[in-house]
Each structure stands twice: as structure tokens, then as C-alpha cells.
Amino acid sequence: MTERAHTHPSVGVDGAIAAVRARGERVTTARRAVIEALAAEPHQDAEAVAARVSRDQPGVHRATIYRTLQSLVELGVLAHTHVPDGATIYHLAVGAHGHTHLQCARCGRMFDIPIDWLAELADRVDQRLGFALDPGHAALLGTCCDCLDPK
Q1: Residue 145, annotated ligand binder?
Q2: Count of domains in the chain?
Q3: Which element (helix H / strand E) includes 101?
Q4: Does residue 141 sit in helix, strand or coil?
Q5: For every one of its 151 residues, what pLDDT tens digit does the chain have, with 9 covering 90 and above?
Q6: Is 147 one of the annotated binding-site residues?
């Protein structure tokens, strides 16, 4: 799991649970446990979520946790981001302002940035290449200031 330098506004368990119900879905023990795990610590991969849920709710089977992550993404309650050379990370998506991720290639820290910072790039790519960029789906690699100038 990586350290977070900046986080998006917290959605909270209640907002995510309300979103599940608003979509006509049941709030199962597994769904609640996954939501609570990601509300407590965003940017976790599936293994970290499963470990936390297994610790907090030992009766929830590991395979159920993985299916729950997928179903909550499909419902729009969670979002996932592909991290270069790493596992996909998850975070609560309901009510969160659009953001994307930067990852330091040296230390692994994750940084949230507003997705609109990439709007000009997305427009240029679309105009020049006819390619619709999805900047929220994958983390962009770079080097953070701490790794560029270690003290």
C-alpha cells in the first residue's frame, strides 16, 4: 500500500451506503465492510482491502470481497485506478470530485490531482489524434519532490 500525499474529499460510509441503496441494491455485510475499509484508507489494492475486511469481518470469504469490489465499481460507488507496475487501487467514488492520480516511480507515493488539470491535454489528444483520453483510469508516473531532492 502506498502513502497518500493528497486525498480527495472524503465521501464517508453513510454516503456510499446511501448510494448503494439508491441504486436499488442491498447493503450486505461484505459491501459494508469493503466500503468501511476504503473510507478508512483510500488507495488500497484488493489484497489490502481483503486483509482489512478479513480482520474486521472474519466471516466474509476472500472471494466475496473480490466480487464485492467489482460490483461496487460497476455501481459507481467505488472507482479503480491502474497503477504502473502495481496492483489496481480502489477508493470511494460517490460524491468525490473528479480527480486522477500521480505516482512517484521511486517511492510509490500517490498524489490526487483535479482531473480538470488534464483537460487541455485531453482536448489536444482528441483534436490531433481523435483519441478520447480517460485520465482517471490510470495513474501517471513521475518523480515527487522528495525523491528529486532528498534531504
Answers
A1: no
A2: 1
A3: strand 99-104
A4: strand
A5: 343 344 333 458 898 999 999 999 999 999 999 999 999 988 899 999 999 999 999 999 999 999 999 999 999 899 888 887 778 889 888 755 577 888 888 888 888 888 889 889 999 999 999 999 887 777 888 999 999 987 6
A6: yes
